[in-house]
Predict the 3D structure of the following.
Amino acid sequence: MPHPLRSLAFATSLIVLGVLTTTPSRAQSLVPDLEQQVRSKAAQIEDKLIAWRRDIHQHPELGEQETRTAGLVAEHLSKLGLDVKTGVARTGVVAVLKGAKPGPVVALRADMDALPVKEPEGLPFASKAKGKYLGRDVDVMHACGHDAHTAILMAVAEVLAGMKDELPGTVKFIFQPAEEGPSLYAAGSDKIWGAKAMIREGVLQDPKPDAVFGLHVTSGLPSGRIGYRAGAANASADELRIKVTGKQGHAGYPWRAVDPVTTASQIVLGLQTVVSRRTDLMKSPTVVSVSTINGGSRFNIVPETVEMSGTIRTYDAGVRGQVHNDIRQISENIAESANAKAEVEVIELYDPLVNHDKVTARMAPVLERAADGDVVVTERSGASEDFSFFLNEVPGLFFNLGIVPKDQDPSKAAPNHSPNFLVDDKALVVGVRALAAVTVNYLAAAKMD
Ligand SMILES: [Zn+2]
Ligand SMILES: [Zn+2]
């Protein structure tokens, strides 16, 4: 039985929720004229938008090797009369559009990199591209839809540049390399890449954005549907490495050796209690996975070492730090109890992506209008996204755009990163409308504060 006061609170919260959900969510636009212009200009360049997307799809490039893509982007932005900077974080492009009227600064970001995935034949614009990934020859494909993001942001730049005289503020376009990680060196080396590298090179300065927006296409939603979520939306991702060192010996005389195999096994089981017994799951769903375990050379030798690797996912910075400490403590103490040694290394790759509550609430009706009412509040995503680093610095919102053709079931669609991942071109114009509409609304709303 719930506590009566609690059930009262629960009932009250239901009433509040009820009020919220019955409030007309497609509220009036603050800038109906500008939003209408966005809609008609986006429709006018839809054919060009699709052609760009297909061209970029056919010529995918890996992280920090996006020279052709960056060239296309820079040429387009220069033609629009924007102030363009290239070579940011190696292959990134940044451009600034100054509206004729004074106002705040909005940054919009698209990522440009592809993945080491082989695309099957079929599409007339299917990729046959090859590339170098960590020194290996690989096939390359836009299997995460960053081709769509790049083309959408090119179109948004054209739409907003065409409204320059009426724009109350400044828009910064950020075309980012290496969201999926670098391809020329291993993640976890001393180098940084992608969003982090751009921030280090001052992309969020001069002018400093007041808000940042971006989108990701997803196989989880039907074509043209927009999904969003306030607060933590994407998980942090850390790489876990554990090296267990024992003492090599004859497996017929295990008492003369220190066995890292049994110790590593105990550590794997011990780590299962990090989430189940120690983590505050009210604060953050959490995952600790040991995914590889390697050691030994022969059936009758106790090896010297066993090496393991895995991944850690959380949605909260505090929980993340606690999980790292717990993993260290459990691993080191289990090893010590076996007279072995465990060395734990955690490589922090991506922070949790946390959408700004106030910005999300303000922009939800804008997204709803841009998608003609086809919006949904999504679950958290277990995937990570380095847009999180921009959101650590500047309030903003990162939302999803469905790309699964309407006659197909998203639950059966090939996911992002699959060779069969497929973008329905009809969704692209919705992405353009959404990003451009969010921008003009933010600029106008901030002015009214
Ligand atoms: Zn991806
Ligand atoms: Zn992606």
Observations:
- The chain has two domains: 26-234+352-448, 237-350.
- Residues 144, 146, 179, 216 surround zinc ion (ligand 2) (CB under 6 Å).
- The chain has a mean pLDDT of 93.
